[in-house]
Amino acid sequence: MQERFPELNLVKEDCSEVSYIQSVLAFSLYSPEQPIEVLLERSTFKLPTKVKSAHVRQPISKEGLHGIWEMLLKLENATNVVFTSFGGKLDEYSESSVPYPHRPVSPRTAFADYSDLDLGANNQNGVTNYTQASKWGKMYFKNNFDRLVQIKSKVDPTNFFRHEQSIPPL
Question: Considering only CA atoms, which of 29, 21, 51 is closest in space to residue 164?
Answer without folding.
Answer: 51
